[in-house]
Amino acid sequence: MNGEELTEQETALYDRQIRVWGADAQRRLIKSHILVYGMKGTVAEFCKNIVLAGVGSVTLVDDREVTEEALSANFLILPDENLYHGKTLAEVCCDSLKEFNPMVHVSVEKGDISTFGVEFFGKFDAVVISCCSLAKKKLINQKRQKLPKRVAFYTVDCRGCCGEIFVDLKDYKYSKKKLEETVECQLEFPSFEDTISVPWKALPKRVSKLYFAMRVIEQFEDAEGRNPGETSIADLPGVLKLRKELCETNSVNESKIPDALLERLLIGTSEYPPVCAIIGGILGQEVIKAISGKGDPLKNFFFFDAMDGKGLIEDISEPKPVS
Amino acid sequence: MSSEEQLSAIKGAKVLMVGAGGIGCELLKTLALSGFQDIHIIDMDTIEVSNLNRQFLFRQSHVGQSKAKVARDVVLRFRPNISITPYHANVKESRFNVDFYKEFDVVLNGLDNLDARRHVNRLCLAADVPLVESGTTGFLGQVTVHLKGKTECYECQPKPAPKTYPVCTITSTPSKFVHCIVWAKDLLFAKLFGDKNLENDLNVRSSDATNLSEHSEDVFECRKGEDIEQYGRRIYDHVFGHNIEVALSNEETWKNRNRPRPIYSKDVFPDKLTKENGKTEKGSATDDVSAMASLGLKNPQDIWSLAENSRVFYESLRLFFLKRQKEIGNLTFDKDDQLAVEFVTAAANIRASSFGIPLHSLFEAKGIAGNIVHAVATTNAIIAGLIVIEAIKILKKDSNSYRMTYCLEHPSKKLLLMPVEPYEPNKSCYVCSETPLSLEVNTHHSKLRDFVEKIVKAKLGMNFPVIMSGASIIYEIGEDLEEDMVAIYAANLERALSELPSPVISGTVLTIEDLQQEFSCRINIKHREEFDEEREPDGMLLSGWVEAPVDKNNNKSIGNGESTSSVLSMEEIQEGEKDVEIQETSESAENVTGKKRKLSEVSKGTIPDHSGLPDESSRNQNQLEKLDVDDEDDELIISNDWESLTKKKRL
Fold it and tell me: What is known about its subunit structure (chain A) (predicted)?
């Protein structure tokens, strides 16, 4: 870490947060580059948070056009057709994000992310993807696995009043404060594909039902060739059928994934702003921690359900062999 | 969550937000996105640069403007068809009375000080309007829900009182850097630059009562023909040299403590100073006046040496006299006053050096002296989301689902966001349960003025009190009082309690009301002759008043000002946890809930599985002991340590 000082402007602007994570962490943030895919409400919140935090650059990817629905939970889009006409979601969001912190370089990358090469991902310190099909998630995660450089990988999805974050930091070394000392730690994160391949039966009894429910719907969309989030209550019978199959394959009881939960996730395909704020906040904190290399990262799933108000972490990984 | 019922409840709701800062910006945005259409927002502050790292509705170009107004303008840009009414005003103003609050369906607080929170709490109780409270510090935060008669009010639970230090620790025996800061800020800075008529404890109290006060009044005044350098050296030598020598002469003090060493300017700077100042002054705008700039010290995160600190001390002193002469005699410490911060940092560091206490950077010193709350956008965003969720539950009158939610930095039993059911009102809460208080006081010595300042205003948090003894009003503060009444009250203030026209003696019951807060409280007076000067410096003892757990040596004489976040400490979160219903096991069985009960009845089979304790590694907090928890069976097996943890019971 070279000894570049923070400028006077940076010190003044970031004073309050430097008191939280220190000047060193702030310097690392200033040098970092984040790639973001899928500009829905939750991701808009996340981008706002990291831009305020003062990352080096944020690159947005989302070629979709601005629609009514996009306006509903995304405060980066002003409802003025003259402003957004002819622009993509990424472009409109980019304009707004720049205003939050002129010191952050915000830009747009066009094109189909599945075609971007491995070297492209290598330009970034963290990649955050949302509104992504199962196939794409796996693909992007794999591409960045191939990089020698460690690129933090996150997926985030909100359905109705529930939200999910997945974290993959590969082999991650970091430091944290324990009492008065600084302690060095290391964690190994499984890849996305490895994680979701963990047989359900092998997981602890009390793993959040939301984990399984999200996997069922994810696979349903995949099987039916749907765009992410394009489901409705009419799909319930199909989803229940898939649940039955998956539970049988995994030798677990169907009661692990209640009907009511699946219903809620299917109905609520539009985003719920309070949940966007919460998930976007948690995700922001995680990316900041990973870039600065300080503080326990979340391993490896985070779930929030506004119904019970719990925000919990699940470690979905191969159970360690008993020695 | 998009049922018709919910949408219409939101659409038709009238919401009051108090505070348009860190939480306020996030909250206003989320409310607007969630479909709220009639929002009122009160905030008395204007926008500063240090806000911009998290109060994202504000831009550099907005600095100096009203937060409430700018927040409204910016949010209207992405939700043009809703109504947002801003008030650039202090929430304590009389126009925000009970009738004002009654118009709202719910009140949402995003405040940064205890005083305002208590005030809003009382008005919400009086108006019977639900209140959602919140606070954040760094990565920690919480959201709490308050409904009159159904849950605790905001004041049912003790809130940490601002930290205070015994006078002698500050004047004679500092052991921590913060003691040096308080000395530098509230004593030295105040003495040199503040109101000279104010009492000041600057001089060390020596055991022999040789009264130095006469002599030292002269010390701090500039002498005729003295130039700034001579003056500076004299002050330096007096406070860092002479005063320390005097303190050292009192052997008793240092029996079990490390002796400080006196520091004299000739030892640090044998040569003349003016030669060493390097840069010449450029321009004379007050804003740019800075000792650091003048001395070429660039990095506020550096820890300066004793010599550098001493240079800053002289240079800031010199610059105050040279460039800001007019303000001297009127200044109070302001964390945004760069020169003041430099002076206080330097003075505190020199003193620290004398006492063998580690030195700190300007950045750190500023944080301590200015009670700066460290803050980030993400926590505020999370808390705002949680506030809106509770607000919607309140509008739907979904009372079984109300939750207090804690946002933790380190997960507790997998939870980063921990919801807990609210508690019933505290029957001993003098605010919402009208329990009378008791006051022990020497009614012959203590004046009404002391009672009004220290008890009614400070402890009870009233702004416009009316104090009655039986049917007669002995004192009131208000607008539109008649002149002769004002005179009578002024005279009353100077009288001892027992000598008031309506004498206040042992057995008297005083009724104190704040008509604006619509809050009334009774105090039973008990006469007591003696009070311990060290432990009860106010000469009055109020009981039945729910106070934060007190440190052994808490004199309450000198404080460092208030920390503005009021986030519950981990201790308090842990106390919240103890009220989870627990299945009886062979070991413990004792139901530690005591008198407090959760709002809903928790039956045996439905123990909430968020019944864990926070991790011990939490940043700002004390060490906590872990409970043994058996995951599989939803039971808590309570170790013997539980008893010691529950000692600090809430009433």
Answer: Heterodimer of SAE1A or SAE1B and SAE2. The complex binds SUMO proteins via SAE2.
CB atoms A52 and B30 under 8 Å: no
How many domains, chain A?
A: 2
- The whole-angstrom distance between B418's CA and the closest CA on chain A is 6
Q: What is the per-residue DSSP string for B379-418?
A: HHHHHHHHHHHHHHHHHTT-GGG--EEEEEEEEETTEEEE
The total number of residues shown for chain A amounts to 323
Tokens of B458: 């400070």
Residues A28 and A74 in one domain: yes
CATH of the domain at A280: 3.40.50.720
What is the residue type of B129? V
Q: What domains appear along chain B, each with residue ranges and CATH number?
A: 175-356 (1.10.10.520), 437-543 (3.10.290.20)
pLDDT for residue B103: 97
Query: How far apart are the C-alpha atoms of B504 and B499, rounded to whole Å?
Result: 7
Does B283 appear as a known binding residue? no
Longest CA span, chain A: 65
Predicted confidence band of residue B250 (pLDDT cuts 50, 70, 90): confident
What residue type is assigned to position B303 of the chain? I
Suggest the residue from A19, A178, A286 to mutate for an interface test with chain B (most B CBs closer than 10 A): A19
Helix (H/G/I), strand (E/B), else coil: B82: coil
Per-residue pLDDT of A14-33, as tens digits, reads 988 989 888 899 999 999 99
Question: Do A233 and A136 fall into the same domain?
Answer: no
- Tell me how far apart the alpha carbons of residues B607 and B150 are, in angstroms, rounded to a whole number: 22
pLDDT of residue B558: 61
pLDDT of residue B533: 74
B258-317 pLDDT, tens per residue?
A: 899 999 998 887 776 654 444 444 444 445 689 998 898 988 999 999 999 999 999 999
CA distance A301 to chain B (A): 11
Annotation marks residue B168 as catalytic: yes
With CA atoms as reference, report the closest residue to B118 among B448, B430, B559: B430
B511 in helix, strand or coil?
A: strand
Which 8-state DSSP code applies to residue A258? -
C-alpha triplet A301, A307, A312: angle, nearest 5°: 25
Name the pTM for this structure. 0.82
Residues B508, B513, B516: CA angle, nearest 5 degrees: 175
The answer on A180 and A125 residing in a single domain is yes
Average pLDDT for residues B6-23, to the nearest whole number?
95
Question: CB-side exposure of A16: number of CA atoms within 13 Å?
Answer: 26
In this structure, are residues B39 and B17 in contact, taking their beta carbons and an 8 Å threshold? Answer: yes
Percentage of the residues of chain B whose pLDDT score is greater than 70: 78
- Residue-number span of the structural domain to which A183 is assigned: 8-194+271-314
A154 in the same domain as A15: yes
One domain, residues A36 and A104: yes
